[in-house]
TrEMBL record:
The protein's name in its UniProt record: Alkylated DNA repair protein alkB 8, variant 2
Enzyme class: transferase
Keywords for the protein's UniProt record, in alphabetical order: Methyltransferase, RNA-binding, Transferase
EC identifiers of the protein: 2.1.1.229
Protein species of origin: Salvia divinorum
Domain Fe2OG dioxygenase: 198-325
Domain annotation RRM: ranges: 16-94
Pfam families attached to this UniProt entry: 2OG-FeII_Oxy_2
Key word RNA-binding present: yes
Keyword set includes Cytoplasm: no
GO molecular function, a single term: RNA binding
Superkingdom, natural source: Eukaryota
Amino acid sequence: MPRFTSPKGGEDASSHHLYVANCGPAVGFSHETIASVFGMYGEVEGVYAADESGTRVIVSYHDKSSSQAAMKALNRHPCSSLGGRTLHIQYSVQSLGKVNNTASVPVSTSASDLDIPGLYLMHDFVTPQEEQELLAAVDDRSWYHLAKRRVQHYGYEFCYDIRNVNTNQYLGELPSFMSPVLQRIRSFQALSRAADMSLDQLTASGVNEYPPGVGLSPHVDTHSAFDELIFSLSLAGPCIMEFRKYTTGVWQGNSTSSSDLENQISGLNFVKKAIYLPPRSLLLMSGEARYAWHHYIPHHKVDKVNDSLIRRSARRVSFTIRKVRRGPCRCEFPEYCDSQK
């Protein structure tokens, strides 16, 4: 896939290529759909992922006049053909050099190999029979449809637009099918800190279903929304989860409609690590892993683990179990903390 970058000083401000933020597979629009929309302004040679977020693309035209027409018509305007989303567009140029941090990274199968403080992975946390029972339980209930996946909320509903919960909207206790999982978390000695949690107040803030090729954009779970320990139980299919810690500037990754989208990936350097999450495994993010590392699922259909290529299953369901925070966050990572800014 070609690589692109922003025009440098002295270069023509316009080009054949447009960097388009606020659209892409992660928000429900395929590259084919985007090409069709932008094709109204001229011949589109290709649509490419701008990065791994799934929310930004490069649209390449055959000629510069077409990109100029699209820029004039679509930049900072709601696009009815793309769900009314306001697009943020810049000109881009094809890069012949290497792009920082785009190379693939080795994938670990153990959390200890990543050396991220507070990250733990427990294989076979539930049995195959329990996995089937959990899947049957959620499939017996109604799903809420997002652009590219379906979700269910228990305890409190998670609001994706503000990345927080409404504590005034209590949905009731966690369902009984979660009891064995919660009990096992309490009794697992390696998680002695979890035993101090009032697990009856935990929120399963989403049962997320990811079809092949659909991932999760980089983010840190909002500090003020949830307490320190965040658990993610993977069912039905495997995936790769990647972690980023930014070393130049801080990107919270929570903006979806602001002009800040244009600068989110400019001037940022980061350390990048990856872990393989097999079915029936439980991931715990705590401490630094929870508060300071962005986590995300790349938008891949095939993952490379060591020397093996693993095709994603037709379905992956994750149970994310968190405790709603009462009061502001007082963590040791104020640069990432919305309560301490």
